[in-house]
Specification:
Shape: globular
CATH class of the largest domain: Alpha Beta
Mean pLDDT: 93
Largest sheet: 7 strands, mixed
CATH superfamily of the largest domain: Formyl transferase, N-terminal domain
Distance between the termini: 28 Å
Low-confidence stretches: 1-6
Radius of gyration: 17 Å
CATH architecture of the largest domain: 3-Layer(aba) Sandwich
Strand content: 15-25%
Strand order of the largest sheet: 3-2-1-4-5-6-7
Structural class: alpha/beta
Number of helices: 6
Oligomer: single chain
Number of strands: 9
Number of domains: 2
Order of helices and strands: EHEHEHEHEHEEHEE
Length: about 210
Amino acid sequence: MESPTPLRATRLGILLSGRGSNFVAIAASIREGRLPGVEIAVVVSNVADAPGLATAREMGIATALHISKGKGREAHDADVAACLQAHQVDLVCLAGYMRLLSPQFVAAFPRRILNIHPSLLPAFPGLEAQEQAFVYGVKTAGCTVHFVDEELDHGPIVVQRAIAVLESDDPHSLAARILAEEHKAYTEAIAMVAGGDYEIRGRRYVKRDS
């Protein structure tokens, strides 16, 4: 009897513009066995000196640099999409990627792009979400992992993690505590999506019955 062909691992493409702390957390989850059947195929940055790119190289992970400055959004996104496709990426994970993706890029990876945002969406989309939440005076803050669509911080939600805002918090301490939850939430969301046993009903992630 022939041995069954092993299932191919889910291949991640990580996009980042800075230090990539969520990328490092994902890599640690893979290394420590919390994301079985998942591997990082390539780390892509639009910034030449992004620390996350150097970290990926040190880890022995394939990297690619596609500088966005001075290039049109659609042309840049076409280059990045081609790179991800060449690396046979199944799931794209934005990890501090400071660019709004073009509709063409989103269409190239339908329901296969995840983003993490440091607020409980739909509250406080956009930049400096933690500071927005603190200034607004919310009692509960957190983070959201969601599918990416053509609108900013808008696609269907996969995972949210909430924390209480403490009397002792300032915007920096709140951001640090939210970031710790982001590292957990991204691993959880990738595990939920990589298996493929789910569907999107309206805006809701729904796990299929086994």
